[in-house]
Amino acid sequence: MYSPTILIEAMINGLLTGAIYALIALGLTLVYGVLHIINFAHGAILASAMFAVWGLNVLAGVDPYLAILLLAPVFFCLGYGVQRLVIGPAAKGDDGNILLITLGLSIFIENALLAGFGSDTRSISSDFSFAVVEAGPFLISSPRLVGFAGSLIVTAILWFIMSRTDAGKAIRAVAREKLGASLMGIDVGHVYAVTFGLGCAALAVAAGLLMPTFYVNPRVGGAFVNIAFTIVVLGGMGSIPGAMIGGLLIGLVESLSGLLLGESLGQIGIFIIFILVLLLKPTGLFGAKA
Asked: For the whole model, what pTM was predicted?
């Protein structure tokens, strides 16, 4: 039986990791909330953002956290352009086409990364990666603390944009009633592109927060997206607060499951929760019925 100190420390680290999971899920839930589709390219875009952080560090010595300031606007513009110039025109208004296009985009990005970087795993070497903060009897990872704070800040910014700005009001109007919004003069294509861009920018931030303690290879995004999808279902499709709370809960469950069952079985608890939510409350904690 583990001591209370070990259990509490595992819970703290699980919550800190869960905040970054939530940040990854935010992009997924934003796109679903407005476009009403699952973005199958989400994991591949995350992997490309992580490679961008790694490349800036190795080639130019840019700190991963500083890279966030450079890459977030770049990935917003990339996401905007991909939605506006590729996904939107190719979909021709059919949601089924969007699913196939994002799946094809995922395959293209992953194979481009494989061609450019090979299948080797890469990481960033930094003394800060192993730094810890002593809080009484607990040892807390400093990069995870930074990741937790960064995730909360980004979530607060997205919530402010969605609830307090004209752009956010336009996004919510399109999410609720696309035809009515277009009749009121809202450019639906522009709103779709902005939403997709915000989702990609959130992934760039997540990549910068992950890289000090994690590795990257062309297929790394798949593991994160599986967790992110569970978070979106748990929190409620399209809910920003739900994504954050769901991420914290999933991080907590993963940490405790890994401690009690072994690291290799740590994700069993996540998928048990996923099944239970689908059975008992399919709309999630903060989701609404269609």
From this structure: 0.91
